[in-house]
Amino acid sequence: MSKKPASGKNPGNSSGIVQPAHAGSVQLGGGALFVIAGPCVIESEQMTFDTARELKNITSALGVPFVFKSSYDKANRTSAASFRGPGIERGLDILARVRDELGVPVLSDVHSEAEAERAGKVLDILQIPAFLSRQTDLLVAAARTGRCVNVKKGQFMAPGDMGNVVAKLAAAGCTNVLLTDRGASFGYHNLVSDMRAIPIMRGFGRPVVFDATHSVQMPGGEGDRSGGDRRFVPFLSRAAVAAGCDGVFMEVHPDPSVAMSDGPNQVPLAAFRKLLESLVSVRAAVAPFLTGLEAL
Q: Which of 14, 15, 21, 201 could form a disulfide with 28 if both were Cys (CB 3.0 to 4.6 A apart)?
């Protein structure tokens, strides 16, 4: 008798082959490891642009497909007093400049149907936050923009539950999809990363991303803000690449100690190249052996 994966549901695709997604002219999945990276939130236009430019230079030198991310509105901050970002209008203007002047795809979070429609005119990838990953109307609105949609698996969801997300998007006409794992709730103020989630979600035929920085977050762990421990980012990200993820998501900041959101999780910009080099090396080592969930 075959065993079901940890989700309790068998994905329909056990071949390990995924349908690549596309952000502008950049292919995501089905080939080289890709990276989605940038500051957690847009703090200023200059910092955002300078960080995006340096990330592009590093990823171009290493031959890694790159999508720049930064949020114009962090709508789920722990405290109402926390910095949320410049807002949708100013934020999209800044991301449009990054996209047009640097020639890189851009990604940001959307939180409502109306917001998805507006953001879809600028963003190459609309990201559905983990807390909203089951919201059907939001998924449908994002799908209808015609853009790539990246859905973060809720911390409260089993990996197999993402099959329903894929089906909702497909029913709305969207197959240009990424699925992202960012850990699962493990008691209070803690997350754990179950690497079985990667082949399980890849079984739905869509590229899977591992969120290396939110996976080390301690939600609400500092009372009025979330904590985290970036020291574990290299270990978890290398494990995820070895497990077969198609891409890695990480928030990167010039100086996380003064970041206005999620500082404890973010990777220092100065450390990004060395970390990415290690991930490229792991990918090269395991690529010949990557398969789907096949019976042993």
A: 21
